[in-house]
């Protein structure tokens, strides 16, 4: 009788440990299957403001997922969204929200754009370091870019004609500034540049120039202002205090008036490597990279919406 109990105990132990080994084997196989699933290519295209950030994120991501090749290209928010609508890419980078007419076009092609906010940008107005003007109101900036104020002396500067630098019409930044700052049409005299970096170099070389760029383009790798530029502080109106986009706390508190979300759009609820990429970008590691590149992390309200869009 006692030997039967011992035998039964041995069988039970074998079953328990065998079960553990089987379970570990299943888990191991599951991880293997996941790794196999997380292989392939990821095509990301769009916003010039986001392109450098996305390339840095891709470098870090591919170290974690060596079986995944991530290709990141710019071209502008409109170009990225059009590529998503046409089924040419996996993710569209955009520095503006998708337009109603673009959503309609997407639905006609059975594409369902789903937004994820990956960070925040303080759109920055820059002038040459020799320009004595340090701050402007939103109304003054709008009047300058509409071509209604054409000389720096009218806003406290030198008697010098203002030279306008801006973006091409396919740029999300072009559309955002037009809607949020101008409330009208750009001056016909504005020189339309292909990207943020071109505007920075143009203003550094032009004492009469003014331009607008994403905040990630006005800081070096240590978070310091790029030499050769003055970053304008901006007032909501003539009676408001002026805040600078280099002041992180002012931006996070909503005091700097020209802040916008940066988006990545997927086709439907992301799956596979697309989902894995989005989760990486929104992770603590991904958000640290976002901030190290000069942008700002995702605030709580957008984080909640991101979670909903992942379900």
UniProtKB/TrEMBL annotation:
Keywords: Cell membrane, Lipoprotein, Membrane, Palmitate, Phosphate transport, Signal, Transmembrane, Transmembrane helix, Transport
Organism listed in the record: Anoxybacter fermentans
Subunit (UniProt): The complex is composed of two ATP-binding proteins (PstB), two transmembrane proteins (PstC and PstA) and a solute-binding protein (PstS).
Domain of life: Bacteria
Lineage: Bacteria, Bacillati, Bacillota, Clostridia, Halanaerobiales
Membrane association type: Lipid-anchor
Name of protein: Phosphate-binding protein
Domain PBP: 39-285
Family (UniProt): Belongs to the PstS family.
PANTHER family: PERIPLASMIC PHOSPHATE BINDING COMPONENT OF PHOSPHATE ABC TRANSPORTER, PHOSPHATE-BINDING PROTEIN PSTS
GO (cellular component) term, any one: plasma membrane
């Amino acid at each position: 009788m006692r030997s039967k109990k011992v035998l039964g105990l041995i069988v039970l132990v074998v079953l328990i440990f065998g079960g553990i080994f089987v379970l570990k084997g299943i888990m191991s196989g599951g991880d293997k299957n996941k790794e196999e699933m997380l292989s392939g290519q990821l095509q990301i295209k769009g916003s010039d403001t986001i392109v450098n950030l996305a390339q840095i994120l891709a470098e870090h991501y591919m170290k974690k997922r060596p079986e995944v090749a991530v290709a990141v290209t710019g071209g502008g928010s409109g170009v990225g969204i059009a590529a998503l609508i046409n089924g040419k890419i996996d993710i569209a980078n955009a520095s503006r929200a998708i337009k109603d007419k673009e959503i309609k076009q997407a639905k006609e092609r059975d594409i369902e754009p789903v937004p994820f906010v990956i960070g925040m940008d303080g759109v920055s107005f820059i002038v040459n370091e020799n320009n004595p003007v340090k701050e402007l109101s939103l109304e003054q900036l709008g009047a300058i870019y509409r071509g209604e104020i054409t000389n720096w002396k009218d806003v406290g500067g030198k008697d010098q004609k203002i030279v306008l630098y801006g973006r091409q019409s396919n740029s999300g930044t072009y559309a955002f500034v037009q809607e949020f700052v101008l409330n009208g049409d750009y001056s016909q005299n504005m020189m339309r540049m292909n990207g943020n970096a071109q505007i920075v170099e143009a203003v550094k070389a032009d004492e009469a120039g003014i331009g607008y760029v994403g905040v990630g383009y006005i800081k070096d790798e240590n978070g310091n202002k790029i030499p050769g530029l003055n970053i304008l502080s901006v007032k909501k109106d003539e009676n408001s205090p002026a805040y600078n986009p280099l002041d992180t706390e002012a931006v996070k508190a909503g005091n700097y008036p020209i802040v916008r979300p940066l988006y990545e759009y997927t086709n439907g609820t992301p799956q596979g490597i697309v989902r894995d990429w989005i989760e990486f970008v929104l992770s603590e590691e991904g958000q640290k990279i976002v901030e190290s590149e000069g942008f700002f992390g995702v605030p709580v309200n957008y984080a909640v919406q991101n979670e909903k869009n992942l379900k």
